[in-house]
Amino acid sequence: MSVAATEPTAGAGRRRAARGSARQRIVAAATELFARRGYGATSVQEIVAAAEVTKGALYHWFGSKSELLTSIYRELLAEQTQRLREIADGDAPVEERLHAAALDVVEHTAEHLAELTVWAKSAHLLDDEHAEATRRERRRYHDLFCDLVREGQQSGVVRTDVSATVITHTFLSALGNTHTWFRPGGPLSFAEVGHQLVALFVGGLRAPAGPPYRT
Q1: pTM for the full model?
Q2: Which residue range or ranges hold the HTH tetR-type domain (predicted)?
Q3: How far apart are CA 73 and CA 102, in angstroms?
């Protein structure tokens, strides 16, 4: 397919076709280059060359390199937040929903490890409205997870001697920082490491009752 055929054109049908080809190639190329060379060292020209599109195509979908990076993460975060909301709103006992929520974080991260690792390594380089919007959306995910932990505490199935905020930050931070030490080709896959983190997390939720802390 020629480059011209993949660039955005008028009409809803054609726009959807472009989104499924040019846009996806841009995202894939940016993810690979950001992972290999770093966000700061990767130019827009290198991204469009690798994606085999023009700069006009990239700027049709993304207003800047910063928006491209945040868009990669925000789309995954929106998907993950929706999955967590469905789990949290389910009818299962709270301990089962907490376990399912923790497993979902691991499984979703393993499915999109390259994109999420790029974001974890590059987010600190951004300081604009896109980064701020992403932080707000991430906070909503954190609050939703924390609310589920609090529900478990109120139901008497989760320890109350540690605050729900500490519990939430500990688990999500541990998983979010796994990229700093995990090495492919080791004795465990990323998914196996994640499942072990879930085992530690779920196993550590119950403990002898102590003085409750504010959550």
Answers
A1: 0.77
A2: 20-80
A3: 19
